[in-house]
Structures are given as C-alpha cells and as structure tokens.
Amino acid sequence: MGPVRYAQMTLFHFHLGLYERSSMQRIATLLEKIAELSSKKETTLIEIDLMMDYTRVMYADLLEWRNKIAFTEPLTLNSEPTLAEMASAMEENHSTLDESPEVTGPAVELDSTSMNYESAAEAVTPSSISFSTPPPYPASDIRQLIGINDKYQFISELFGNNKDAYEEVITEINAFDTEDEAFYWLRNTVAPQYGWKKDDESLVSLFGLVSQFFRER
Q1: Which of 51, 101, 123, 196 has a CA positioned 20 to 30 A from the CA of residue 94?
Q2: What is the pTM of this model?
Q3: 149 and 201 in a common domain
Q4: Which of 129, 200, 119 is nearest to 159 (CA)?
Q5: Which domain holds residue 167?
C-alpha cells in the first residue's frame, strides 16, 4: 500500500470512528426517550407516533452505520456453518451411506441432485438482503424542516394533541405560493381557532420555520 493510499485509509477510519461515536450517542438518546415515553401509565396516540418517529431515525442510523462497517471489512459468519458447508457435510454422509453394508428391505434412494446447494448458498447471504430507509420529504414540503421534537411540541401545544389538525395545517402551508399568504391565513384563520398567543414560544418557532421554508423554496 502506497503512502497516499495509507493516508487516505487512515483518514477514512478516523472519520468512521467519529461517526460511530456520534451515532451511538444519538441512538442511546433516542432509546432513553422511547423508554421514558413507554414507561408512562397512560400512553397517548401522539406519544406512540413519536416513538415510531424515533424508531425510524434509529433504523436509518443503524443502517448507515452497518453499510459503513461493511465497506471496510468483509462480513464473516464463524459461529454457524454456511449452507455450502452444510451441503458438503451432507454429501459426505451420503457417501458413507453408499459404502455401508447392504441391508435387507426396500432400498431408499437419496437424490442429491434435487437441490443445488451451492446456488442456494450464494443466493442467501447477508449481503443479498436489502434494506431501505424511509424516503425523505420533498424540498417543497415544510415537514423536512420540522424535527421530531418540534413536531411533538407543535401538536401538543398548538393543536391540543390533535395530529390530524396539525397535518392539515402543514399541508395547507405547503400549498401557498408566498410567505405573506401563509402568514395571513395562519394569523386570521388558524390562530383564532386554536387560541394561539403571538408570544408563545412554540408559535414563534413554527413561524420561524415557515419563513425559512419560503426563503429556501
């Protein structure tokens, strides 16, 4: 391995180590949040949705982590025999049966060609199993800017734990062409309906995301 290649691999493993530590910390935090929500005596629908969101984030992190590790080192299964090894052992046992003394009674013929063990071993490998991460929201959807905690906070404090109402308002915001139109509708139609106060921290946070959404659109 040349010096340039060695330096590249060293840098790659360094960044991989940083990524692993960051992912482990985030996964541990999400697990704590799920444990905290699930330990409540009465779990609401929105809390279950929140735990599902946490789980999706963990799944995406674990999948990306797995892919990075698989890129640097081959996956080996030493604890259990592979299908190819099992097929080889069965063929050896078959040969032993053929060499054993003949016994009386109807002969039972074992058809070793009824299954192609090698092709089965190649078809069923860990690398052939595909995983897919949940698709991200499109750029034209304000949901891409709303984090899990923000979503939970908005539904809880601005929409009275009514997830359907929250989704309807978010969908309507996406349909507006300008920021002014969206704010006019929010202030004159939605705010009176849910009793929003203009100095509410959750409302200020939501309006900030609406502004950002139309600036980056």
Answers
A1: 123
A2: 0.45
A3: yes
A4: 200
A5: 142-216
